[in-house]
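Researcher: Please translate sequence to C-alpha cells.
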Amino acid sequence: MNNRVAFIDFQKPLRFDYIEPEVPLGFLFLSHAVKRDGFATKLFSYWQGRDNLADFVAQVAAFEPDVIAMSGICGAFAVDMMVILEALKARLAKAISIFGGVGVTISPEAYLNEKAVDYVCLGEGDKVFLDFCRMVRNGQVPAAIPGIYGKDDFDRRPHEVQVIQDLSGLDMDMELIDWNPFVGDGVLRSLQTSRGCPFACHFCYRSAIKAKYRMFPVEKVLGWARYVKARTDCRQVRIIDDHFFVDKHRSIEVITKYREAGIGMVSLDLRMEDITGDLFATIARIGIDSLFVGLESPIDRILKGMNKRTSRAVIDKAFSVVRQFRSINVGTQMILGVPGMSDGDLKETIGYSIGC
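Model: Translation complete:
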C-alpha cells in the first residue's frame, strides 16, 4: 500500500467561459484527519471546460493513490463527475473509490448503482473517513463503519447519517491547496464559522441531513482567515454558514475580530426575524455592508408549506428596517413554481420582489 489519498475536486462552470472556484472545504477537513495518521494526501482540481481529461487522469495516476475520494453533487454535473471517475478507475483498477457530500446523502443508491463507485459516506465524514482509510491501509475490506456503505452491505445495514456533534476537535489542512485561485478581487470565495441550522425548511438540504447548529471556536475560524490573508490578496471573506446570526453575540465577536485582523466579511446569512434596527445599527458601525436573507415567498400559505417558520408580517417589518440602512446591501431570493403555487401566487410573488 502507498498510503495515499487522492481528493478529486470538480469545479463546474457557473457561466459561459467563466468558472468561479469554490473552496473544497470538505476535503480540507478530511485531509487534516488522515494526514495526522500518516497518510499522504493530494487534491486534484478538474476545471470543467478548461482541463483535458486524459492529462488530468495521468496526473492522478502518477500519484498512485489507494483511495479516490469525490464529493457528490446533484443535477447534470453528476454525470460529468462519473465520467471522470470511470476514467480514473480504468487507470487505477486497485484504487478504492468513495463518494460523500450532500448529493450522496440525499440519494446514495443513485451513486452506488454506478459501476465505478465502490463506497458512499452519508453525512459528515470527518471522523469515519479515517476509519475507512485505515482499513484500506491494513488490506481489509472496509465494512461495518457507521455511515459508510458499499454495494454489498447497503441493503443489509441500518443507514446512519453521520453528524459531528462537537466541532472543536476538527481542523483543516490549510496546506492542501494553493489558496490564490480561490481569492478573486480580494474576496475569498468561501469559509465556514459554523455548521447546521436550527431550522428545517423543506427545500433545504439540511432537512435531509438533520444536523443541528454547531459552531467552530472563534479563534480557530480567525486563524484560518489569517492564514489565507498572509498568503494571498484576501481582504474579505464570503462566509457560507447556513445561518450566521444564530448566536448574535458570537457573530459580532467574529466580525469584530476579523476586522481587527484586516479582514472584512461579505454576504452573511440571516433570517427575516433577525433583521432589527439594533442589529443593523451595530453591523453598520463595525463595517458590514453585505448580507443575504432568504425571502422565498411573501405568501403565508406557501411559507407554511415550506416549513419556513416565518410570515408576511415578519417579512414586511424586516424590509421596513432594511430601507432605513441604505449603506447595507441586502441580497435575497424567491422560490417560484413550488407545489401548490397558483398563477395568482406567482404574480403576487413576482410583484412583491419588484416592490422590494
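Researcher: Any highlights?
Model: The chain has two domains: 4-150, 174-355.
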